[in-house]
Amino acid sequence: MIGRIAGRIDYRGPDHVLIDVRGVGYVVHCSDRTMMALPGAGEHAALYTDLLVREDLLQLFGFLSLAEKEWHRLLMSVQGIGAKASMAILGALGPDGVSRAIALGDWNAIRAAQGVGPKIAQRVVNELKDKAPTVMAMGVQSEITPVAAPAEDDGEVIEAAPAPRPAAPRSNPAQSEAMSALANLGYGPSEAARAVAEAAGDAPDADTAGLIRAALRLLAPKG
Fold first, then answer.
1. How far is 105 from 122, CA to CA, in rounded Å?
2. φ, ψ for residue 198, nearest 5 deg
3. Which Gene3D superfamilies does its entry note (predicted)?
4. Which one of 32, 99, 131, 213 is most buried, by most CB atoms within 10 A?
5. What domains can be seen in the chain, in order of their start residue?
């Protein structure tokens, strides 16, 4: 299993990159969001990867975070969702958006992805709703680290200064911290995930304390 690729981007296609890893080129398919976050040809990059193995096909898919990779794996487990649909969902929403949509039961958000109809979108939400808390809790720990471009000196490989990383959608650690705090207060994973997802949707830039306060208001008994 190839779990991570790090090397120089030789070529950028519309939905994939060719990454040279010490003379071996790997074609890695990515979502639209991941493609936009990657640097140009000649620059170094790193991606978590998932290998799709079929009788007549081997395909690598690349992700900027373990949370994105995990959602790809989970989405692919849903009947009717193949690699193309999974990439479309992640490209449209990003891993945080997928977490939020599934935690809130918002199948219309899933349906916004190209090629995903209402029945499939509802199936995604129904089958994966119990998985959202676990993936949301991965938080910032799933972010990939920048790649240092290797340099050669007298035939010996040495580490060069880290290459700058382009701006990319980042996981929000406040969400995982807020979920952990709610769990410590006795709330179940699913209800904590729904409340934090709704609070984060209303205030995307809220810090941990703000998310906890907003989530507690949502969880408070009505009336």
1. 8
2. -65, -40
3. 5' to 3' exonuclease, C-terminal subdomain, DNA helicase RuvA subunit, C-terminal domain, Nucleic acid-binding proteins
4. 99
5. 4-63 (2.40.50.140), 66-136 (1.10.150.20), 173-219 (1.10.8)
